[in-house]
Amino acid sequence: MSQAEQRVLQMRLVVEAADYEQAVAFYRDVLGAPEELAVDGPDGERVTILQMGRATLELSNPAQVAMIDEIEVGRRVAPRLRVAFEVADADGVTQELVSGGAELIAPPTVTPWNSLNSRLEAPAALQISLFEELAPATTDTRHPATVPVEF
After folding, report:
1. Which has the closest alpha carbon to 124: 82, 73, 76?
2. CB-based contact 130:147 (threshold 8 Å)
3. What would the pLDDT profile of 74-118 be if each residue is shown by its tens digit?
4. What is the pLDDT of residues 17-57, one digit of tens each?
5. Cβ neighbours for 8, distance < 8 A, ≥ 6 positions apart
6. Assigned CATH topology for domain 3-133
7. 105-115 burial by CB neighbour count: b if 16+ within 10 A, else e?
8. How many Å apart are CA 68 and CA 75, to the nearest integer?
9. Domain coordinates in residue numbering, the chain
10. Which residues contact residue 37 at a Cβ distance below 8 angstroms, ignoring those fewer than 6 apart?
C-alpha cells in the first residue's frame, strides 16, 4: 500500500500531564524528542507536540503482556497502556532518564528476541520501555540473560 493509499497518516498518543512542565522537560529535554508544536490557550490551556519517530500500535493479549513483563521485569507490573521507545543505546538512555527523573523498574535486559529492554516509571504517569535492537541472535535465545547495569 502506498502512502497516498494509507488511511492513517500519523498516530498521536495524547497524555494528560498533571505536572505539564515536568513532563515536557523530561520527554523533550531528557529523552530528546524534538518539539513540533507548542500552543498556549487564553485560559491556561497548554499543549506540546513532540516528534517521536515512527509510530506503531502494538496490540497484545494478556498472556503476551505477562510474558514481556516476566522477561523485562521478572513479575507482572504493566498497566493497561505502556509506551515503548526504540533507542540506539538502551544502557545510556536508561541512565539519562533515571538521572532526569524517571524511576527504574528494571534495568536493561537481553530479551529472547535479542533486544535490550529496560522498564521505567516516567513523568505523566507513563510506564515506558526502552528497547535497543541488537544484532541478529546466533545462539539459543529461549532463556533471556540479564545484563547488569549500575545506576
Report:
1. 82
2. no
3. 999 999 999 999 999 999 999 999 999 999 999 999 999 999 999
4. 999 999 999 999 999 999 999 999 999 999 999 999 999 99
5. none
6. 2,3-Dihydroxybiphenyl 1,2-Dioxygenase; domain 1 (3.10.180)
7. bbbbbbbeeeb
8. 9
9. 3-133
10. 47, 48, 49
* DSSP-H helix ranges across the chain: 20-24, 62-72, 90-99
CA distance 1 to 27: 32
CB count within 10 Å of CB 57 equals 7
Q: What are phi and psi of 33, to 5 degrees?
A: -80, 125
SS3 state of residue 107: strand
Distance, in Å, from the CA atom of 138 to the CA atom of 135, rounded to the nearest integer, reads: 9
Q: What is the mean pLDDT of the chain?
A: 90
Q: Scan for cell 505477562, then name that residue.
A: 66
Cell of 20: 505539564
**Distance between CA atoms of residues 94 and 132, nearest Å:** 11
How far apart CA 114 and CA 18 sit, in angstroms, is 36
With beta carbons less than 8 A apart as the criterion, state whether 122 and 144 touch: no
List C-alpha distances in Å: 6 to 9, 14, 53, 112: 7, 22, 18, 33
